[in-house]
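Dear V.,

Thank you for sending over the compound details. I've combined the ligand you provided, zinc ion, with the protein sequence from our construct and run the structure prediction for the complex. I'm sharing the raw inputs here so there's no ambiguity about protonation or stereochemistry in the SMILES, which I know was a concern on your side last time.
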Amino acid sequence: MLTIYPIAIYEDNYVWVIEHQGQVAVVDPGDSQPVVDYLRKRNLSLDYILVTHKHWDHVTGIKELTGTFPNCEVYGTGHETIPCLQHPLLGGETLSLMGLDWKVMFTPGHTLGQIAFYMLDKEGQGHLFSADNIFVCGCGRMFEGTAEQFQASLASLMALPHNTLIYGTHEYTLANINFALHIEPNNTYTLHRQDVSQTLREEGKPTLPTTVADELKSNPFVRWNQPDVIRAAEHFSGLKLNSDAAVFGVIRAMKDQF
Ligand SMILES: [Zn+2]
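Below is the predicted structure of the protein with zinc ion bound, written out as structure tokens.
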């Protein structure tokens, strides 16, 4: 059986724990103790650590976890300096871990070296561990990349099957939805997501995972070809925007100031 569970750390980060056939992987352990507590309580060991990018809230727990679980192997981006990294990945690799098939995607934009992990389970369902690329109705900050790079990365993620489950690292959903409705006030699907997400948060539940289909319907950062989104970006910039990347870049800049 496959289980995927979020451990909440810090203010609004999730460490995703993946269990399959008695083996366990964690994605982006920004802290170690909550992960150790979770595994000990269930009598589990740790086999793999998967790391998407170098930011402190994604890597800080790695050293301690490899100390506590010495057999655990660290797979992560080879474009950046990652603690204890044993298997550097550049994107395009296929991996077989825990009896599951994985594909590594190179997705620069948030940082220049970020990768994402796409896993196909035994039923053929896709699971995307995308870290700070895409969130519910949002995307990561553009710290290092260009709008062209980031938009191309998001386009490659949105080209995955529509039912792909997306496990982002941050619980920014309600704030992101406020911004999404600022861009597309008449998007009824976003309004519906606001209701659903508010209820989940009131119950103390995560709003993730999301899906490719949900984001295509409501996330202004991947709706660069929608008239309302283009109109909002052109109004803000005062420019005629003639590429998807240009629209994306302005929407990203608008969010930075929102
Ligand atoms: Zn980050």
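A first observation: Residues 110 and 144 are 6 Å apart (CA to CA).

Warm regards,
I. M.
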